[in-house]
Amino acid sequence: MKKRIFIGLIMISLLTGLLFTLVVGAVLPISAQRRVIDSLQQEAAFIRARTPEEGISTDFFNRLITDSRVTWIAADGHVHYDQPADAQAMENHADRPEFIQALSQGRGTAVRYSSTLGQDMMYYALRLEDGSVLRLAAPVQVTHLLFSDMLPWLGVCLAVCLIGALVIARLLTGDLSRAIARINLDTPEEVDTFEELSPLLTRISQQNKHGREQLDALAQKQQEMDKLIDSMSEGFMVLDARRRILTINRSAAAMLEVDPHDALGKTLPEISRKPEILQLLQQMDSTGEASVTMPWDLKIYALNASVVEGSEGAVLLLGDVTERIEGENMRKRFTANVSHELRTPLTTICGYSEMLQSGMVKPGDEKEFYARISSESKRLLALVEDILRLSQMDEGYPGGLYKRVSLWDTAREALSSLQPMADKKDVRLNLLGEKLSIMGDPTLLSELMFNLVDNAIKYNRIGGHVDVSIRQGREGFDLVVQDNGIGIERGQQDKIFERFYRTDKSRSKETGGTGLGLSIVKHSAEYHRATLTVDSEPGLGTTIIVTFPRSQPAETTDKSDKKKKSADKKSADAPKKGKKDKSGQ
């Protein structure tokens, strides 16, 4: 920039000098001609004033001392005198433009070529009193000689201008460079510098402000994107062309059990050499997309990768599909178990029916066969009802309610309905604790209570007892069902809430259970956001605690709520059947 400014100033000085010279060369001859003609006019006036009274003669002109050419022309154009030419040899000047103008106007001027002297001349003609014309002339070359005399001085002036321009250019460029060097690009407007640089500094300041705003916006978007990616429950990874990790969120790092900061810059095989990952990368490189399922510890992850269009990078998504796959496996097992459980009573019913139909039953034994058919039919009906109820719960139990329900009253009704079964096994039923209420669905709470007590009676011993306690615990309201029955082994306690799972299959068949009671209990507890705790020792009994949270959902009702209330009231008013338990129910 400094060099360009320096050269620019030199060129401006040189062009200015040349332009000045050209202007002087064009204007000076014209000005000089005017000055010469004015001088000739003054000289002609002086000569006319000196003319003798007796008249002009050639002797008068011979006595004149002048550098100009003097010509005396008669009124008819005849030349009487000319100096330095011979007047006798000269032709008539009646057609000369300055002569014609002088005769008509009293004076005349012309710049033309002189055939007598063979050069360009400047003429001034003045009419005298006797009608003759006095003409003075000077060569045009005089003006050119004047310009030639001035040309060296013009050259000197041009050289001085160039030298001055060099000095000034060096000083200006030096000051400008120092002023620019002092500019702080972060705060350009705070610099005290040339006024001419103010627009530039203002523009830089505006650009800085705009750039900071853009950087802040990009940083904010990056933070939002990072937060969004980190908050994803699915794992998210971005790989470059060499399959190095550019971005990895916390979910992906947790799934692969790596530190997210340590994983950056490493290739995917460096953090895991599992065959599924190597297969994923190989398939993605060949087809552009890949999808594999990878077991990791106790989890199962689905890995989906695809190459980003327009680049060689790739995006990898990791999802925990453990529950989905286990759910699919559970549904398969459930379908198989349902088929098996339904086949057994149906086979029994069909067998006994065919025997009755073919007359193979002895007279008097028909009643026993009918009783077995009725028992298996009831078992089949109970199984179908439990399956339908579980299906509803799997769908979120649509139509479920949240209303104030008394745990004490619900437990009391369950114990009352199960009292005949307890009496057959000589099992004592006890209801203890406080009369607490929670927000929940009456039907689900009744089934939860019924199945827990039913299980405690079925797997109890002769002369045993079942204690149902309702109390306030540390984390909420506790419903405790405790028995002193056969108990459950430690390895089976986490499986008892699975569908169709039985700790003792032979005993379960004797009790006539469907194997779905505790599954219904589990779903009912999940609906009420309650937790289940099992404590059992083989031969000592089992304790199951259902803890309902203190913070309860708001009450909800539907169109059938009034009908339910009416039915509940009628049921409460109806006389109870069966014996009271020993607690005085």
Task: Explain what this protein looks like in three dimensions.
This protein has 16 helices and 17 strands. The protein has helices spanning 2-49, 58-62, 97-105, 141-181, 198-230, 250-256, 260-263, 268-271, 275-287, 322-358, 366-394, 407-424, 442-458, 505-511, 517-527, 561-573; strands at 69-73, 79-83, 107-114, 119-127, 133-139, 235-239, 245-248, 289-296, 299-307, 314-320, 403-406, 428-433, 437-440, 465-472, 476-483, 531-537, 541-549. By secondary structure, it is of the alpha+beta class. Helix 1 (2-49) runs antiparallel to helix 4. The strands form four sheets. A five-stranded antiparallel β-sheet has the order 2-1-5-4-3. Helix content is 51%, strand content 19%. The chain is rod-shaped. The longest helix has 48 residues, at 2-49. It folds into four domains: 2-147, PAS domain (Beta-Lactamase, 2-Layer Sandwich), CATH 3.30.450.20; 232-320, PAS domain (Beta-Lactamase, 2-Layer Sandwich); 325-379, Signal transduction histidine kinase, dimerisation/phosphotransfer (DHp) domain (Helix Hairpins), CATH 1.10.287.130; 399-573, Histidine kinase-like ATPase, C-terminal domain (Heat Shock Protein 90, 2-Layer Sandwich), CATH 3.30.565.
Summary keywords:
5-stranded antiparallel β-sheet; Helix Hairpins; disordered C terminus; alpha+beta; single chain; 585 residues; 51% helix; Beta-Lactamase; 4 domains; 17 strands
Superfamily at the CATH H level of the largest domain? Answer: Histidine kinase-like ATPase, C-terminal domain
Number of domains: 4
Give me the number of helical elements.
16
Q: Strand portion, in percent?
A: 15-25%
